[in-house]
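Task card 7
Instruction: Convert sequence to structure tokens.
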Amino acid sequence: MGLRDHICSHFGGKAIFWQNLRVNKPLHGKRSKIFCEHIRSLREKAGMTQRDLATALGREHGMVARIELGERRVDLIEAFDLFEALGADPGREVQELMKKFNAAA
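Output:
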């Protein structure tokens, strides 16, 4: 099956069968749980509530709760902003997360 066979029908190609693709993106997978626990731990070490962190980010507190519960994914830019709002060094936190991810693999 070529690349053209994987184009979504909404864009004029054949329908894609997502269940046949090997994409590992479970919302509640090991890495997601590690990330959520890491953010919660940093927040608690910073002495911040979820509301405090949300305020620092300029967002609603429910967003922080959903992140910590693993109900909301975070992209790299948001992770950077989270780390900074928590008073942490984003580079160091990413390295720490990579170590944790590798250990869990």
